[in-house]
What does this fold into?
Amino acid sequence: MINTPCLSITELNQLIKISLESNPILSDVWITGEITQLKHYARANQYYLNISDGKAVINSVMYERTLSRLTFDPCIGQQVYIRGKIIFFQNKGSLIFQIAYMTPDGIGNETKKLAELKALFKQEGFFDPESKRELPLYPEKIGLITSLDSAAMGDFVTTLRQSNNYSELVVIPTTVQGAHAALSICESIDLANHHQCDVIALVRGGGSAQDLSIFNDENLCRKIRHSTVPIITGIGHQTDESLADLVADYTTLTPTACAQHLLNPFLDIYQTLSKAQSLFNSRISQYFHDSQQLIYHANQLLQSKVDHAIKTYDYRIEQLSRLIVTLNPLKTLSKGYSITTLHDKPITSIKNVSKDDMIVSTCSDGNITSIVKDVQLGKKN
It folds into this structure.
């Protein structure tokens, strides 16, 4: 059982606040450093700054009454002298340096170093478009270098897998923040080369300028430049740019945009195949429609010709039937005429018969057998 008094968090923070804000040194102190992050909130007319000496960072705030006394426009990379005091927010358990006065002192050391290194890389041809390697359109193996289970990793994987299940994704966890981050990323690039990836994606989510400064590391930039595998970067937000971005073979604004760039060739081929399939289906449908129309019209024409032929034959049959009826000898016989034959042969002349020949006369209702008594020659009808 602990016998010493136990403080609540509120009581502890109150003690810290009293200790810090009552300290005469911390209540009015001059500091110098470089502005590494700067945000202006127009609504309240306040500046929130990160001031760094290259090793440590302190969060700072400048309220409206101090802004009215500024004689310059502060910017990132600027070296400044600042007078102010420490304020401790006991409810949040955090402190901030409240600026009462600030004056410029040229370009910060970190900015100078970055400018010198950028100039060196430019002289060595690191930024030349001709030195950039083309990314493979359809990589079989993609090496993803990022912090494990980070938002950047989630955004990249989610975007890539929307329409690309072809590429094998090799996730190489690394440290993307802190003193050892640059070395960790260099080792991860070596590992991706060892795995014989077709392309390496180096991604990280947004952060402060101090957090992203590791991507300006000279050794890291040279490792990217000399990698045998082409590298694409997606670091920070749209406004962030690092030397690693400039040295890489291709750079995008965010991890999501990085994955989207690798995904686009697959989307293009899918769209091409989809259009080809739609065109094929359309042409097949049109072919069947045209064939059906052709068959329909041919059937209509055939049916029309058959109907016409049937009508023609019906009319001809009707005419022949009438002619047959007209020429039917039985009809003639019904009018009182008869047909006389000798030995079943029609008698067409008196020369065909002789006296005492037996002849047969056929009437409409029977036959008459007669014997020729006399044959007389008469005038022709």
About this structure: The chain has eleven helices and 14 strands. The first strand starts at residue 29 and ends at 41. The two ends are 165 Å apart (CA to CA). The mean pLDDT is 87.
